[in-house]
């Protein structure tokens, strides 16, 4: 609405201005008319003016038109006539003519000269403005001036009054030919493009010649006449250089040959065109991959197999029972195509689900998004850890060197003396035997009423005693080894007069009691429950016992010198399986069926809890350094824990198909082993570095076989020799084997 109101207002202003201009023009023409009449009276008459065609009738007709119509164009013609009449006698021109009239006459004369021979119209649009003659001078220099340049006679060309944007917009909306107008900034005017010029522009845009009469394919005209020519174009004799090989060309060739031989110039190898291509390959060609295009081809449909054959083999044709079973299946699991046999291709009927399958295929291509997955081509061998050669990790036990036979039932536990000269073994036949390692000779035998569960040799060489767990009792036996002074010291250690009760006398039932055992020559500790394992402290004065069964499950620590027994000052969580002392620190490890806990005996607090994630722990062993632990389980897994690294396993080794019965570290060599009910023992290389930034190195070395299974049990226990890289294994076949390097 605002634009329409503004448009009406502008139109009314325009009409009023046009009326004022017409009145002003009319008054000017009247004045010019009077001045011209006065001038004609003063000038003499010329008889030649009537006969001259250039000064005759055109001006008379124009004056007549002016007298009749009163148009401004008539005044221009009369002024031109007056000027032409005065041209015959230049000396009689009145010098007192007004300057405004003189300027009007000059402008009218210029316009008449430019449009000479063409019928003039009454419209002011046909007037040609004076041409600007400033040349290549930038129009910016006239930015602050009232004119834009000078015409041919040196007169200033004044600038037109600028229109505001609203007025120019309204004019462009009213003018239907506004799109043909171009503003000429050089002459400060609007130029309208004609139809002829439009045709030229269209031809140039189409790449054609601007004029239609131009023929770009005109026939060639040979301006030289070759026929019947007596003389050639040049009579000069042939030069000698045309018959002699060029010296400079030969030098250039030699230079190029040397450059090729030296490798400075490398010739491009011809591109080998691929003669074959993969018929069923991917749609994305190598050129698209080379150009880094983001084209993702549609997945290929499944290719037909033997089942889709018109005459498949009999094994592909389902029976009637199988076809009936298909009806009971879910539609998703039901096969979409049931193969049949036909005698020829002509007898094959039309596929009834052809349109449906094609439609579903189109839906899959249209609706299912496709994502480009980058496949990493990695050699599987490169993913394997680079382990050192087994030859570089020698020595380690490889072959069976000696067998110790004498037990009549399964040997469940073995222990080696600190010097490595003697071996103690306990069996389900109720006997404990002392063997000489190098010869296999049985030195001594103790017989008990019940099956032996565990044997443990004292870690001190000067105290050669053995702890044996039989049922609810633990026996400390004197082996009789050593010299007289050692035997005297051992007898004093294993002798006391009265039994000693435990310190926690407030309990209703005593946990363990000390007694003199005259039958076997040692000490007997009576426990309330069955003892499963016995472990010595490194100083040889303390040992621990584990009672896992019953509500009163407990782990006890005994002091041999004072004949003292006490409970551990920690609350047990779960059923205890085994216990181990730290080799150097005052730390005590207790393993339950699920976890392993480390306690500080001096501060009496929990230090760390190791989460194994195993179904049931069977055994535990501590590295001589004390910072690494291996745990065996009933499911055949072996876990290596680095206590400085994490409470989770550093490595989990799935090596045995059956239960692992025991694990063991070597005291001096970087070796550890595990034995299982599958009648095998695995030997590993386990190097622990002093650099905390370097992880332990675990390398499997050897699988030791030789034991036979008995009642579903295999190898019951394994221990390393304290000094040599030897491994002792005790089997359910009542045989003890020694494996050497």
TrEMBL record:
Renumbered residue ranges of the record's region Disordered: 1-137
A Pfam family assignment: WD40
Main localization, broad class: nucleus
Subcellular location field: Nucleus, Nucleolus; Nucleus, Nucleoplasm
Transmembrane segments: none
Highest taxon in the source lineage: Eukaryota
Biased composition (Low complexity): 74-90
Residue ranges with Basic and acidic residues bias: 16-27
Comp. bias intervals (Acidic residues): 62-71
Keyword annotations of the record: Nucleus, Repeat, Ribosome biogenesis, rRNA processing, WD repeat
Ranges: WD repeats: 404-445
Gene Ontology annotations for the cellular component aspect, listed alphabetically: nucleoplasm; PeBoW complex; preribosome, large subunit precursor
Family affiliation: Belongs to the WD repeat BOP1/ERB1 family.
Function, as annotated: Required for maturation of ribosomal RNAs and formation of the large ribosomal subunit.
Name listed for the protein in its UniProt record: Ribosome biogenesis protein BOP1 homolog
Organism: Lithocarpus litseifolius
